[in-house]
């Protein structure tokens, strides 16, 4: 049975990758497992710490780390590319390693020191069959039967990418929630709007399921790069300008690699009083 007791003075770390921010809890030193109620309380930007996603680090028998991801609404996420990069960078700094393997619901992911303070993670092969995204019915994932003919891609979580004339002009706080809950996506979806700057350069904005409008999203960046290449809009190696800054995506034969900066902002402890009220 999973231990759901809350550890007194629970320690956490705060990271961000291009403004996509995360609370990270390392359970390898005996911290108890996260709960949906506690994740929601920590994710409250006024009464907690606030995050786009929360990640738990555990030991694994066949990988260097095992990661579990939570959204701010208390739901779980199968993948989180920027959090994976942040944790990989932290672990490489801590241990002196230059390569790591990290187990997630997405599978076994590889991470490498890319030099210059950058970290690269292979997010695995994209899923383009409707069953794997997943979608509610058999449709062409390259042109969904939705106004705007978006592209559906699975990267361990579902993605819906709209190519538009100007990503800046889209009212994403209004558009995103409606598309997140579209009935074609039984597990909800991340929503991206993107436009092409050059054959190797895209501009993207993102609405994440369970988190809302975020400054960046690693798995979304991978999905947009794959969607653009499948549409013939770009090659398989692109730079994507996000609200929080640029990230580089390279769709190779062995998977979709993402490379970018990370930051460890601070380390702290939750007080017993907060943990008691957080449930």
Word description of this protein:
The protein is of the alpha+beta class and 279 residues long. It has two domains: 11-122 and 262-278, Diaminopimelate Epimerase, Chain A, domain 1 (Roll), CATH 3.10.310; 151-253, Roll (Diaminopimelate Epimerase, Chain A, domain 1). The chain contains five helices and 17 strands. It has helices at residues 36-43, 81-95, 172-180, 218-231, 272-278; strands at residues 11-17, 20-26, 53-58, 65-71, 76-77, 99-104, 107-115, 118-122, 151-154, 158-163, 190-198, 201-208, 212-214, 237-242, 245-252, 255-260, 263-269. It has a 17-stranded mixed β-sheet that branches. Strand 3 and strand 4 (65-71) form a beta hairpin. The longest helix is centred in the N-terminal third of the chain and has 15 residues, at 81-95. The protein starts with 10 loop residues before the first strand and ends with a helix. The mean pLDDT is 95.
């Amino acid at each position: 049975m999973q231990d759901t007791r809350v550890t007194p003075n629970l320690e956490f770390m705060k990271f961000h990758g291009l403004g996509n921010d995360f609370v990270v809890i390392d359970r390898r030193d005996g911290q108890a497992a996260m709960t949906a109620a506690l994740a929601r309380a920590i994710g409250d930007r006024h009464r907690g710490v606030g995050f786009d996603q929360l990640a738990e680090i555990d030991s694994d028998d066949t990988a260097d780390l095992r990661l579990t991801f939570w959204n701010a609404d208390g739901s779980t996420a199968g993948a989180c590319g920027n959090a994976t990069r942040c944790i990989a960078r932290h672990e490489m700094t801590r241990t002196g390693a230059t390569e790591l393997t990290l187990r997630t619901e997405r599978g076994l992911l590889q991470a490498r020191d890319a030099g210059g303070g950058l970290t690269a993670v292979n997010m695995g092969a994209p899923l383009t069959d409707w069953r794997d995204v997943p979608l509610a019915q058999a449709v062409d994932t390259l042109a969904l039967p939705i106004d705007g003919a978006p592209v559906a891609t699975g990267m361990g979580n579902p993605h819906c990418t709209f190519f538009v004339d100007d990503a800046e002009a889209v009212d994403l706080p209004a558009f995103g929630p409606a598309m997140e809950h579209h009935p074609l996506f039984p597990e909800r979806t991340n929503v991206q709007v993107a436009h092409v700057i050059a054959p190797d350069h895209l501009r993207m904005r993102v609405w994440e399921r369970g988190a809302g409008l975020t400054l960046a999203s690693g798995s979304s960046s991978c999905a947009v790069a794959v969607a653009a290449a499948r549409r013939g809009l770009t090659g398989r190696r692109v730079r994507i300008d996000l609200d929080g800054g640029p990230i580089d995506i390279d769709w190779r034969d062995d998977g979709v690699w993402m490379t970018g900066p990370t930051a460890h902002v601070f380390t702290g402890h939750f007080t017993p009083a907060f943990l008691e009220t957080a449930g």
